[in-house]
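Listing S7. Sequence submitted for prediction.
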Amino acid sequence: MSATYIDTDVIVRLVTGDDLAKQAAAARLFQEVEDGKLTVAAPYTVIADAVFVLCSRNLYNLPRPVAAAALARLVRIPGFHIERRRTVLAALDLFETHRVDFGDCMLIASMRQAGASALYSYDRDFDRFAGIERQEPAASPGHDQEPESLATAWVSGGGTRAGTSRRTSAGG
C-alpha cells in the first residue's frame, strides 16, 4: 500500500494554530504518524514551501529557529517519508543559524553530503560557508556569439547551437 501524501497547508496549520480546529486535526494526524498507525509522505519541496510560508514577513513571520525546530521535529518522524530527509534536516540546521534562503541551505547541505566544494554562483552569501568554493561563470573570449544573443537564445528555448531550437508552434 502506498503512503498518503501531505500538503504544506496541513503543516502550516499544525505549526501556526491560526485555525484551531485544523490545528487539532493536523495534530491528531501527526500523532497517528508518530504512533506508527499511519504513514504519510511528501517531496522535500513541501518542507521548502513551509519554510517560506512560516518565515515570510508578509505571512506568518515566525523566527527561523522556531520554524526550523518545528519542521525538523516533523521530518524526524519515521512514518513521515520525506525525499532527501538527511539533506532536509541538514538544511533546516543551516537555515536556523544563517541568514540565507532555504534553497541555498538545501544546496549547501547537498554539496556537503556529496563531498563537493565547487559551486558556480553569483551569490556572495556562499562565501561565508567553509568548504564552499564559489566561482562565477567566466566569459568565454572569442566565442562566435555576443553575450546578449547567447542569453536570448537560452531564454527563448533555442539553446546556443545552431539548429537546436526547442520552440514549438502554438498548435503543437
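Caption to Listing S7: primary sequence and predicted C-alpha cells for the chain studied. The chain has seven helices and five strands. Strands lie at 4-5, 40-42, 80-82, 118-120, 133-135.
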